[in-house]
Amino acid sequence: MTGHRAIDQTAVHMAEAIRTGRATSYEITEAHLDRIDAVDGEIKAFLHVDREGALATAAEVDAAIARGEELGPLAGVPIAIKDVVVTKGMPTTAASKILEGWIPPYDATIVERIKTARMPILGKTNMDEFAMGSSTEYSAFGKTLNPWDTGRIPGGSGGGSAAAVAAKMAPLAIGTDTGGSIRQPGAVTGTFGGKPTYGSNSRYGLIAFSSSLDTPGPVSRNALDAALLHEVISGHDPRDSTSIDAPVPQVATAARHGASGDLSGVRLGVVKEFAEGADAAESGVVDAYQSGVDRLVKLGAEIVEVSCPSFKYALPTYYLIAPSEASSNLARYDGVRYGLRSGDDGQRGLEEVMSLTREAGFGPEVKRRIILGTYALSAGYVDAFYGQAQKVRTLIKRDFEAAFDQVDALVSPTTPFIAFKFGERTGDPYQMYLADLYTIPSNLYGGPGVSVPVGLSEGMPVGLQVMGPVLGDDIAYRVAAALESTQETPLADTAPEIGK
């Protein structure tokens, strides 16, 4: 990789350099670890760095190549993992005090697949506690900063993964998306974030927030890198009851097709109700998004207005379903079986120890959602709130299925506003929740969504979202890659340099 820093290359170029002997995995992995040492003291994207383990994997890859072994398309390319994904022998905390110091005895399925692909794992990235938040301000271990402007949030809940990629501490990362937690950080950090079709990759080993919504996915600096990682982690898993037993969409092929810049015959839908709710979006975001749509039209796409009347109920529906499922999932953190145990002085009863443990172990946003979810599931209210929300979810799903009968994919802004300053929205949960206004629908209907950098507003990145039908991940990647082809310099490569 003569003449260029290893960390400046795409994952595809790194993999090619490793395969052809122009670079070694050890050199590339070490360059990223050195980058982490140089800049993460400022950005704070990582909660744990595994230098020894990452370099050992890299050395194994180099030895395998020297033996002439055929390896996968991302072999030797380092990766960071969101700390909500279980990693054997490596701390996994979900950024919560209640799991501080926990070292799992097993790997999540997607981590197994990453290891099988021979990708060195750099470490675990910061996040909002239990993936509940839109800013990474709710981590129990301190906030992550946005590399574009360290006074602003990097999005959430996966702000650590997005910031690590944006700051070139990792070429690839894993995030999880429950209501936008891969795509929204991607939009505000100028990175590419992909949420696969729900069930097309395994949730086994994912610390649960909302089981019917949680979806792991790739974070990268471009569509093809994300597509290759998407294919590595996807596929049926019998250990996950929600896993879809179906072929993985050929997203890498679609991304390469899209990079040709030809969208002839592709029909892209603009949801009328999204535009009607544009008063929630900043004008600079709308302008950048519209510029992206205009570029897609020049590539041959046809724009069609569609209607999804139930969209206006998506945000309240999500904020009944997700907290309800969180309330159920987080009941296991009781100070008895594993994790933090507080107040056990031999005198207190079990109920009091559980209460003290949860009080000490959970942060304010987690407590807020547990309370909301417990209320929504309580006797006398479960039908009126949770039951009704599930009925509205069905209406939303039908609306989007009808839209996809008319178009190949839908486009929208990823998030209504650019990265906001720290503390601006923590006092008003509703304003924080608006960050997921455009991303939530794809979680509710279960389809794929990707965020691709589209431009700048006030010097900060803006993302354009592409949503596809269930198992239509390939069309989302094709459109995103086509949009990337209209930019001479990828937005991810124009971020202000840090750590000089």
What is the topology?
Blueprint: H1 11-20, H2 25-43, E1 46-49, H3 51-66, E2 79-82, H4 109-116, E3 121-125, H5 159-166, E4 173-177, H6 183-189, E5 192-195, E6 215-220, H7 223-233, H8 251-258, E7 267-271, H9 272-276, H10 283-298, E8 302-306, H11 314-329, H12 350-361, H13 364-377, H14 383-404, E9 409-413, H15 429-433, H16 440-445, E10 449-457, E11 460-467, H17 473-484
Parallel strand pairs: 2-3, 2-4, 7-8, 7-9
Antiparallel strand pairs: 1-3, 4-6, 5-6, 5-10, 9-11, 10-11
Helix pairs in contact: 2-3, 7-8, 8-17, 11-13, 11-14
Task: Provide structural commentary.
This protein has 500 residues and is an alpha/beta fold. It has 17 helices and eleven strands. The protein has a single domain (6-308, 401-493), classed as Amidase signature (AS) enzymes, CATH 3.90.1300. Strand 2 (79-82), helix 4 (109-116) and strand 3 form a beta-alpha-beta unit. Helix 2 packs antiparallel against helix 3 (51-66) and helix 11 (314-329) packs across helix 13. The longest helix is centred in the last third of the chain and has 22 residues, at 383-404.
